[in-house]
Each structure stands twice: as C-alpha cells, then as structure tokens.
Amino acid sequence: MGRVSGEEGASHVHCRKHHLQVIGCVIVFYFSFFVFFLSRYASLYFCCAVENQDNELLTLEIVHRYVELLDKYFGNVCELDIIFNFEKAYFILDEFIMGGEIQETSKKSAVKAIEDSDMLQETMEEYMNKPTF
Amino acid sequence: MVVPSLKLQDLIEEIRGAKTQAQEREVIQKECAHIRASFRDGDPLHRHRQLAKLLYVHMLGYPAHFGQMECLKLIASPRFTDKRVGYLGAMLLLDERQDAHLLITNSIKNDLSQGIQAVQGLALCTLSTVGSAEMCRDLATEVEKLLLQPSSYVRKKAVLTAVHMIRKVPELSNIFLPPCAQLLHERHHGILLGTITLIMELCERSPAALKHFRKVVPQLVQILRTLVTTGYSVEHSVSGVSDPFLQVQILRLLRILGQNHEESSETMNDLLAQVATNTDTSRNAGNAVLFETVLTIMDIRAAAGLRVLAVNILGRFLLNNDRNIRYVALTSLLRMVQSDHSAVQRHRPTVVECLREPDASLSRRALELSLALVNSSNVRAMTQELQSFLESCPPDLRADCASGILLAAERFAPTKRWHIDTILRVLTTAGTHVRDDAVANLTQLIGGAQELHAYSVRRLYSALADDISQQPLVQVAAWCIGEYGDLLLEGGCEETEPLQVEEEKVLALLEKVLQSHMSLPATRGYALTALMKLSTRLRGDNNRIRQVVSIYGSCLDVELQQRAVEYNTLFRKYDHMRAAILEKMPLVERGGTQDEEAKESKEAQLSEAALVATEPQASKLLDLLDLLDGTSGAAQPPPAPEPSPGGTLVHLLDLPCASPAPEFPAAATGPQWGHSSSSGWPSSDPAPQNPQS
C-alpha cells in the first residue's frame, strides 16, 4: 500500500467543522499494478494506492479508519488541523500503517501511542514556548 | 541574523496567504535561504523547526535535498523532538536512491538497542519504510532480538519490519521463520496481524515454508472462529464486525495455504461457511470480510455447495446500492464464470440489469460478463438485451458489444434466418464498429443458406434504401443485390412484406451508392460489380448499366477504373461470355486467403481458379485463351455450363477448344491472372490474332 495523502479541496481560511461523513468513495482506476482509491470527506480528498490483490472494500475501511484516528486525535478534525499539523498527520499514519501493512487495529491503542510520544516530546520542551514547532 | 526564524505555523500561514504562484515561490525561496543559513550555523535547539518547515515546502513540490544531512544530524541527536522530525525527514527525503541513505544505518542501529519504546518505534518505522537491502542485512539480527521484547508495542513494529526485510532480502526468511510459531499465540491483535502478514510473505517466497505452515491451518481456523463468534471488543470492531482487518488477513492466509491442497481446504470448509452466513452485511466492513471469504472460497478446493454459496453472495452484492460493491462483484463473477458456469447463470437477470448502469466501468464489466453467459438456451433473450444495449451504449463499448453479439450469434444461432437477422440488426445499429471480417462472414452465411436468398436480399434492399452510410451493411447489401437481383424482382416471398421493386429503382440505388461521398472505395467496388451482375439478372436492356460502366472507365480510383474497363470490354467484345462469368457464385469454404478474393469480384473467381489450378489445369487456361485467339470455332459461343458447387470454376475453363497450344507468352498465364496487372484480360494481350467481336 502506498502512503495516504490528504489535501484540502477549498482554500477557505476559516475552519469548517463537520461531522465525519464519507461523501463518496470511488475505486478510481487500475494502473498497471495498482488500484487507486479516492475517498471524499466534505472538502477533503484522500487518495490511496493498493496492489492488485488487495481487498478493495477493505481499503475503503482503511481510509475511513485513518480519518477516524485523525478525528479522535484532533477532536472533530477539519482541514486546517491537518494543514497546520501535517507532521502530526504523518505520525498518526505511522502508528496505523507501517511498510504498507496495517500494524494496529485498535483505535484506542493507536491514539494512545501518539499521545505518549507527544508527552515524551513535551517533557523535554516544557520550558520552551508552545507550540513545539 | 537578527530576525528570529519563523515558526512552522507562521510559514504555513504566509504560504497560504500568497495570492499567486509567483508570490508563493518568492516566500518559499526566501524561507529556504533562511533555512539553509540556519543549517550551516544555526541554533541547534531550533533545528527541528527548520527541518519541519523544509518538509512542508517539500510536500508542496519544491526541492529539499539540502536538508538530507540535517536529517542525519537530527536523528543522531538525543532529544526526542529532534529524532521524531529527523526520522520523518529521513522517510521523506532519504530513500534508497540518495547517496546519504546508508549513513542512517548506524543511528538506527543505536536507536534499536536503547530502551525507549517510542524511539525504537521510530527507528523500526523508518527501517520498514525506506530500508534498503544493505541495511536490512545489517540490522536483521537486531530486529530479530526485538521480536522477543516484553513491550507489545515494539514487538508489533518489529514483526512488520521483518516483513519488509524479507521483501527486500528473501534469504532472511531463515531468521524470521522460527519465531512465527510462538508469535501466533499472541493475543494482541496488532502483533497477530503482523505475524500473519509475515507468514504470508514467507509462504509466497518459498514452497518449503508453505508446506511448513500448512500445519497451522487448524490454529488459524480457531483464531478466526473465536474472533467471529465471541471475540467482540469495542476497540477493535468496525460497525459491529469484530476486527475486519484481522479477519481479512486471516482469510488471505487461509487462501494461500488452502490452494491446491485438499486437506487444508477441507479443514476450513465449515469455518468459511460460517463466516459467509453470519457476517453482518449492512455496512461496508461486513461486506469487505464477505468479499474476502468469497475470494478464498474461489481459490481453494472448496466443496461444491460452498462455491455455490460464494456465487450467491456475489449475486447479492450485485443488488447492493453501493457502486463499489457492484463493481467488485462483477469483477469476481467474471473470474468465476468459466469454472462455475451454471451457478453464475442463475444470476443472469441481475447481470443484464447491470448493463443499464450509467457508470462506464460497471457497464463494461457487465457487458463482458453478459457475453460470457450466453449459451444455446438463452441466446435469443440475451441477444435481444445486448442489441438494445448496443443501441444506447457509450461509443467505446460499441465495438466490443458488436463483435460480442456477432460471436455469440455464430456460436449459438438457433436458425440461419435468426442468424442473418441478428447480423443485419447489428450492422444497422453499429455498422461502423464491426470487425472487418463481419462482411465476409455474412456473405458467406447468406450464400450458404439457399432457402433464405430471397428473404435476405429483400431485407437488405430495404435496409439499403433507408440508409447508405453504414459501410459494412452497404457492402453486403450490394453484393446480395448483385447476386440475387432476380429474386428481388420476382415478388412473392412469404417471410417479408410484399415489396414491389422495380428494376430502375434497384439500379438507381446502386448508382447512388457508387456516387455517394460516404462510400469507401471498397464499397464502390462492390456496387460496381453488383451492377455488372445485374446485367444478366435483370430482364430489361442494359443501357443504363453500360453507361455507368463506361463512365467509371475513367474514374480516378485505379481499382474502380480497372474494373470498369474490364466490364466494358466484357460488354463490347465478350458479350457471349458475360452470362457465364457473371452467374451465381458457388459457396466458398471458410478460412484462408481464398475467401477474401472470392468475394471481391469475378476476377477473383478466376484467380481462385488459378490458385486452385495445379499445373495440369494451367493448360485449360491456355485453352480459354486459345478459344479467344480464334484458332478454333471462332464464331461459336461457348455453351453455358450448369452451376455446381466448387467445380464450376474449373468448368468455366473447360470450354471446347482445340488441343492446348502453349504458344502464348508466359505473362498471360497462371498467377498473374485476376490481379491488377496489365495482362489481366486478353484484350491487352499482344498475342491474339482474331479477337472475337
């Protein structure tokens, strides 16, 4: 499985809060060895590439799980959360998928791992200004 | 440097605030210069911030290679913040192709062996994402040690790193195979998932490993059974389905282990049936598991009943509202249609419904599947459906649909008349999209069905009168009218409506085809020859035909011109032979180059005779020339030989003549006959002394 990337579809500056709702999932096209998936959540598009033998319907679940993780971590995630905390989005992804395979199927554990890492970071930085970056 | 460096979020704000592409570039260039400077001599405390900014810029597509060494420095730093960003940078910037790639090996090695979970996790993650074969070899033993770590967090990541290592360096399978047995007893879902993935990799790479792991099939069955029946846990379930990710992975492994192995397949039969029937299908998660189950059933040596169950599940998927589910169902049914034909047949109505899908990829798959489902008992109904699909389908599917219908008609036609009707309808609807041999096939078919000559020619005449733009149709119609023009004018044919056709109208129609700008050169050739044939079929005088033929004698198209000239000569000098030459063609055998030529023109008749003719018969050709030469019976018209299949062409040459007189130049004989060569007809042959009048 390739890396998942999310990009905002609109360029509004104000934050739009929305309930996590899949607006459309599409199995986009077959391209040599890969199948591309596109999932749309409001104005967020998630594109994912999987190999031929991977279960297409499960891939939709995988994308949805990732979005749920983001939601749980950021609390009602919106596009700007992802834009301004892109490195966190990567860290969360790295707790869910590793080397192209799923590593953790428990939402709770995945989010806890990130929070533990954040704590580790914070204790080092407690005397510095937040945000860390 | 007086200005404090921008915070990451400020930079992002600034970039997003840029109104144009140029402005954005400017902001980024300025910032990159800043970053470069700070990499050189900047404050180590804020290095991670600089790299984070650089990574953002990299994500937008700008060059960031100068940050590679910085990644290395950050990874080596003792601070966790640094390591986190450093490793992220390594994963984004330091793939195998970069020179600096190997330099991270040492840092990873150090981080793997020190005790902080989070740090070990980072190192393992980087290793499994960008680890090269070199690196994997170096660090394999470290990772193996981590498989025994007390922390499940680390074990889980170590297993997946092992998967990556095996992909890169298959020889490492030796190291990672032994721990699998122990790991399968884990309760932690993540570790279990990773282990199953690891076993899958091992089995795919080595038949010995595959054999070894068949032993664990019962254990896997047990795990899955527990998961499905009692293993409900809130944190792992998705829409009421217990850990679908783990279920799917187990099913995949079972598929690999059960393939071509009776015993293993039998062990899983019950479980597969259980999963197939008990999974909740109201949400996608359940459908994903169900789909995987179907795929597994398809690939192992499953019991017949189980296979039918799988097909029925796919049939149910076809009725689902979700497009994606219909899509996977159609694709999978296509795979199963050969092996489980009767089971898939039961869902034929649903498949045919799917032809009406607005989505192009769905209707394409539905078309493929429908064509695969046609058999002798449903051919009429299916062809009906496919014909109506052909009328409204998107252009890129037309060709496939048309050729599919024609193929199906050829294989399963119940009657010849139905066959002819079907081809006719396809040619009328999608004439421009049919394959080239459709014309040849249809003429051959019509030619062979003697009882249907009258019917065919009438239908074709009506079709042609309506529309002369569809070239294949026009070609066939022209040929038919030429061959069976007499039947067309005769009147009574019970199978079609009575059609009063006049000679003049027929000739007018063929002329229209000849003159139309829509007609291809080949089509015009057909029309001209048809006109010529009608000169013997119609009862009226041939002035009109002679006129057309002489006009085309100066046509710019060389092929037409040659034909016209030859036909002209036929009228003028060899009129007594005209009837014989233009009589009805015998049925040609299918296949081989002989077909195409035979259907083109009457010269082709003779060329075929030439091809068929072996050496002894070459002398009969000479006989013909002899006759024309006038050495014997100069004024005697040849008797018209009776038509008989196959042998007629030879009879044509079997004309009464004197003994063979091979005094003609070689140029006039054999293979050159009939093709566009200067010596095609005796009229251009220098030898004859007394040409017939």
TrEMBL record, chain A:
Domain AP complex mu/sigma subunit: 39-119
Stored InterPro entries: AP_complex_ssu, AP_mu_sigma_su, Longin-like_dom_sf
Membrane-topology descriptor: Peripheral membrane protein
Pfam families the record matches: Clat_adaptor_s (PF01217)
GO CC annotations, alphabetized: endomembrane system
Alphabetical UniProt keywords: Membrane, Protein transport, Transmembrane, Transmembrane helix, Transport
Transmembrane segments: 20-38
One annotated GO biological process: protein transport
Protein localization: Endomembrane system
Domain of life: Eukaryota
Family named by the database record: Belongs to the adaptor complexes small subunit family.
UniProt name for this protein: AP-1 complex subunit sigma-3
Species name: Leptonychotes weddellii
Biological classification of the source: Eukaryota, Metazoa, Chordata, Craniata, Vertebrata
From TrEMBL, chain B:
Topology with respect to the bilayer: Peripheral membrane protein
Name this polypeptide is given: AP-1 complex subunit gamma
Gene3D superfamilies attached to this UniProt entry: Leucine-rich Repeat Variant
Localization per Swiss-Prot or TrEMBL: Cytoplasmic vesicle membrane; Endomembrane system; Golgi apparatus
Coiled-coil intervals: none
Pfam short name (any one): Adaptin_N
GO biological process: intracellular protein transport; vesicle-mediated transport
Similarity remark: Belongs to the adaptor complexes large subunit family.
Highest taxon above the source species: Eukaryota
